[in-house]
Each structure stands twice: as C-alpha cells, then as structure tokens.
Amino acid sequence: MPQKTIFRQKAIMAYKRNMEKDVLPRLVSTPIIVCLWLMLAVFLAAGLFVWYVQVPTYVSGSGVILTGGDILQPEYGNIVGVVFLPADQSAQIRVGQPVDIQIGSAGMHVQSTIAQVEPGVMSPETIRQRYQLNAGDAALVTQPSMVAIIKLDTVLSDTTYAGSLLTASIQTGSQRLLALLLGSGQFLGSSS
Predict the structure, then answer these.
(1) Which pLDDT tens digits describe the chain residue by residue (192 residues)?
(2) Residue 67 in 3-state DSSP?
(3) Nearest one of 142, 146, 140, 143 to 167, comparing CA atoms
(4) DSSP 8-class letter at 163
(5) Model pTM greater than 0.85?
(6) In which element (H, E) is residue 149 found?
(7) What is the C-alpha to C-alpha distance for residues 43 and 164, in angstroms, rounded to an integer?
(8) What does the alpha-carbon distance between residue 150 and residue 168 come to, in Å, rounded to a whole number?
(9) Cα 181 from Cα 185, distance rounded (Å)
C-alpha cells in the first residue's frame, strides 16, 4: 500500500515552487534609497559645475609710480607706474590687459591697462639704472624681471603719489575650477 500523506499534491507542488524562488532580504528602507539617489545627483551636478566654470588667473608684481621728471612721463602723461613681473610670465603679458593696482600697502585701488611691455627680460641693475630707482625702491627688484608700464588713467596728484609703491594684479587668462582645485591646469583645460 502506498504511503499516504496528509498534504494534498497541489500544496506540495506549490511549496516546492516557492522554495525555488530567490528571495532577497530588504536591508535598506525606501527613504534611505531616495536620499542616496539625491546625493548622487548632487555630486554629479557639483562635478559638472567645477568642470565647466572658468575662473580668472592673475600674475602679481610690485612696482613704483615714477616721479614727474622721469623719461616716460612726456610719452604717457602725468602719472606712470612701472611694474616688475617674474621673467617666466613674459609670454602671458600683453599690451591692453586689465590691471588692478593698489597704491601703498592699504591705499587706494585703481583700474588701468598695460600701456607698454618692455622687450626682453632685464637684470636688476639695468632696471635700477633705467628707471632711476632709489635705495628703497631698488629692493623691489631682486631677480631678472620683465617690465610693464602702466598709464594711470585716474586723476592723481603726481607730487603726492610720485615714488609710491604699488602692487599690480594682471589678469592673464582663465582656467577651469577643477584644475584650480586639483592643481593640474595643464591637463584639465586651462586657457588664456
């Protein structure tokens, strides 16, 4: 006599089918999944932002406002500033570039443009002699430099500001924000 089971044949088959199904446990709740997707979207948006945004790049240099009897005064008018820039920046400096000038350590800000770029790189001694720098101003030039002449367009008193030290920031181009953050502008699209 065949052995009888207390279960129906259909129930046994349904039980076997259910045992063969893959059941994944629910480890993470729905709000956490939504938050993770939102975080991913924010990171992607931030990545696109730092990839496409361009920030300006500047070259800074120190200089001096020349006195009224200087050789450059008749050519450019009343007030002329001379800025001494690092020699390795000579390829980036051109006539007409915008310059932000601060006169003195906490003095006034003046916007201007480069009127002339002296050809080549000059030695500190040549710069001291050509622009008749006094002992205090001579300390501005300690290495070979290039010279940019800036005509100060604002109405400044040449007797008041002559001989004043200035700090100039010249906008030379732009680079991607990502390159600025990573410090590798040559590979990530710096431009001028």
Answers:
(1) 556 666 678 888 888 887 777 767 777 788 888 999 999 999 999 989 988 888 888 888 888 887 655 555 545 566 788 888 888 877 788 888 888 888 877 677 888 888 888 888 888 888 888 877 777 776 778 788 888 888 876 666 666 777 788 888 888 888 888 777 777 544 444 454
(2) coil
(3) 140
(4) T
(5) no
(6) strand 145-151
(7) 49
(8) 10
(9) 9
